[in-house]
C-alpha cells in the first residue's frame, strides 16, 4: 500500500506533463483499484474492530479495579514463571535501589 501511495503522486505528475489519454486512463484505473482494495480491507476489518472495542469497553471496569489494587506498575518486578507454570509478580521493596541497566557502546 505504501508503494501505491508513493507511486500515485509520481504518476499523477507524469500524467500532467504528457497529454496522453492512455496514461490518464491507467492512472484512473490504478486509483480505482487502490480505493477498492482499501474499501475491501476496511469492510473486512470493521467487524473485528467493533468486537474489540466492545470487549475493551466491557473489560474497562475490571482493569480500573486492577490498577487501583496494584497502584503504580513501577512498584513491581518483571513477572517470573516458575517451573510448575505459575507466574508470580513480586512487589519491589520500598527504598530498594535497583542497579541501572548497563548500556553497551
Shape: elongated
Helix content percent band: 55-70%
Strand order, biggest sheet?
1-2
Q: DSSP helix count?
A: 2
Percentage of β-strand residues:
under 5%
Order of helices and strands: HHEE
By helix and strand content, what is the structural category?
mainly alpha
Mean pLDDT: 78
Give your account of this protein's structure.
There is one protein chain. The chain is mainly alpha-helical and 105 residues long. It is 63% helix and 4% strand. It has 2 helices and 2 strands; from the N terminus they run H-H-E-E. Helix 1 (2-17) runs antiparallel to helix 2 (21-70). The two termini are 37 Å apart.
Please give the structural blueprint.
Elements: H1 2-17, H2 21-70, E1 80-81, E2 87-88
Antiparallel strand pairs: 1-2
Short description:
The protein is mainly alpha-helical.
What distinguishing features does this structure have?
105 residues, 2 strands, disordered N terminus, two-stranded antiparallel sheet, single chain
Amino acid at each position: 500500500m505504501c508503494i501505491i501511495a508513493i507511486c500515485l503522486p509520481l504518476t499523477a505528475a507524469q500524467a500532467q506533463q504528457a497529454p496522453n489519454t492512455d496514461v490518464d486512463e491507467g492512472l484512473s484505473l490504478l486509483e480505482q483499484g487502490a480505493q477498492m482494495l482499501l474499501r475491501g480491507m476496511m469492510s473486512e476489518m470493521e467487524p473485528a474492530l467493533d468486537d474489540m472495542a466492545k470487549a475493551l469497553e466491557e473489560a474497562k471496569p475490571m482493569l480500573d479495579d486492577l490498577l487501583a489494587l496494584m497502584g503504580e506498575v513501577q512498584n513491581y518486578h518483571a513477572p517470573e514463571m516458575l517451573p510448575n507454570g505459575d507466574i508470580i509478580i513480586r512487589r519491589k521493596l520500598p527504598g530498594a535501589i535497583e542497579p541501572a541497566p548497563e548500556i553497551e557502546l
